[in-house]
Amino acid sequence: MTAENPRILLVEDEELNRTLVKAVLARAQITAVRDAEVLDASTLASARTQLGAEDIDLILLDMNLPDGSGLTLASELAAGTVAAGRPRPTVVAVTASVLPQDREAALRAGCDGFLDKPYAAADLVATVAEHLSRRDSQGS
């Protein structure tokens, strides 16, 4: 994790969902989550642009976006073809699909975690906290 507050990139096409996620994280009881800088992108193209310009610690990645599958971005990050020269962010797939094969596909594509929609605010905060803590303990 960076020395400053962690940076989270929220890749979600629904504006209301982006607003809600930001509000939940800003009100979290866990300091690292509450103090995180949350950037957002509504498309894969916008996410790629931000990843090329910013060091990101964690990506909350919707799997169904207007310009493609979030799995594409996860695969590009795993292969090092996006954000070359920057530390690879932790990637959490966020999707309404609860099928085991979709979870497996996300992990194969390079996602580090999985969050099912709909989720409770506490689950979102716990997932973010867990992955930020894990990343911090690994010295990334």
Work out the strand percent: 15-25%
Broad structural category = alpha/beta
Strand order of the largest sheet: 2-1-3-6-7
Q: What is the C-alpha radius of gyration, as a whole number of Å?
A: 14 Å
Count every beta strand, where a strand is a DSSP E run of 2 or more residues.
7
Describe this structure in words.
With 140 residues, the protein is an alpha/beta fold. It is 45% helix and 21% strand. The strands form two sheets. The chain has a five-stranded parallel sheet, with helices on both faces. It has a two-stranded antiparallel ribbon with strand order 4-5. Strand 4 and strand 5 (68-69) form a beta hairpin. The protein is globular, with a radius of gyration of 14 Å. The mean pLDDT is 93.
Write the layout of secondary structure elements.
Elements: E1 7-11, H1 15-26, H2 31-34, E2 37-41, H3 44-53, E3 58-62, E4 64-65, E5 68-69, H4 70-79, E6 90-95, H5 100-109, E7 113-116, H6 121-137
In short, what is this structure?
With 140 residues, the chain is an alpha/beta fold. 45% of the residues lie in helices and 21% in strands.
Question: What would the keywords be for this entry?
Answer:
single chain; 45% helix; alpha/beta; two-stranded antiparallel sheet; 140 residues
